[in-house]
Amino acid sequence: MDSNASGLLSRRTHPPPSSPGTELEAPKVLAYYVCGVKDKGKGLVATQPLPKGAVFLEEKPLFTQNAGCTNSNILSALANCTRDEQREYFTLCNAYKTSGKVLPALAIFQTNSFPCDDSPQTAPSKQRRGIFLTASRINHSCTPNVGRIWDVEKQAMVFRALCPMQAGEELCINYVDVLGTRQERNADLMDRVGFECVCEACALQGEGLAQSDQRRGTIWRLYDEVRMCLKEPTLGMRKAKLALRLLQEENLALYEATFCFDAFQLCALVSDFSNAKAWARRAWEASCASTGPDGPAARTFKMYWANPRAHRLAGTMPRMVLSGPNQDDRT
Ligand SMILES: C[S@@+](CC[C@H](N)C(=O)[O-])C[C@H]1O[C@@H](n2cnc3c(N)ncnc32)[C@H](O)[C@@H]1O
């Protein structure tokens, strides 16, 4: 999908990197350990420094079920597991424990399962979700430092460092979208997963919190605005660059590839193919860290990096020179 009928720029969500040509390998020793984390129960913590894009965990599901499954479906799936696996399953977090509204086996499934459907087209209630005994311990952060993708070929969930990490740092994904204000993010978390976040971004107070909320609110607005700028590519480029600067200030690597791809499309539109190539490369680099070099987003960006003229909007607006990515606005 390169464009839609309304002529808006197409989007690729959740892309993200390493430098081109860098071979990333899974660390030779276990790169994480599971331990108690303040105010969050258990969590995963890095045992060693991890470079941006490093795979630190690849895990196959204990079992999978449809999103709309029942408690008895879960009990049947558990019947095929070993005693140890069953025991471990029942030690996983249950976000519905106090309300008691959901039976325990199903409540644990709902608290801990990840989507792992082979096709993005599957209807939501039929989508496969899987239980991953280790990955279920990964906590949420509104400034996630981990990207994840379901690898269809390996039938495993793959987790990568979104940014360089130090030994001792907690490894966190995002359970919900993290571009709203703290209040909006927490309303979403409470609604969907039943807890209030204690991450660093949510712990901010006063001016720091106001600035973070403002930046995330602006990025959210720019996300929609950039794609409306088909007829004003210069303005679109300014907005995409502003979004990238704000993402960097918020330490949010997760959305970098999306805005780089927008910038690519704007350049391709006006036949600025030199800058288009530079943006496609940046989008590719950014997508490698969250979804990996073999993910669909990275493959698409790499193809446009090699041939920006292949984009269906290429050259459809009067020729002009926009601008390329800056070295200093990487997240
Ligand atoms: C999938 S589990 C993650 C692992 C869990 N901490 C454990 O001990 O097994 C999700 C639960 O972890 C806790 N949690 C995860 N991220 C959190 C955060 N940022 N702030 C507060 N609690 C969090 C919540 O209790 C949530 O229901």
Automatic annotation (TrEMBL):
Domain of life per record: Eukaryota
InterPro entries found in the cross-reference section: SET_dom, SET_dom_sf, SET_domain_protein
Domain SET intervals: 27-176
Pfam families xref list: SET (PF00856)
Chain spans, region Disordered: 1-23
Protein name (database record): SET domain-containing protein
Provenance organism: Rhodofomes roseus
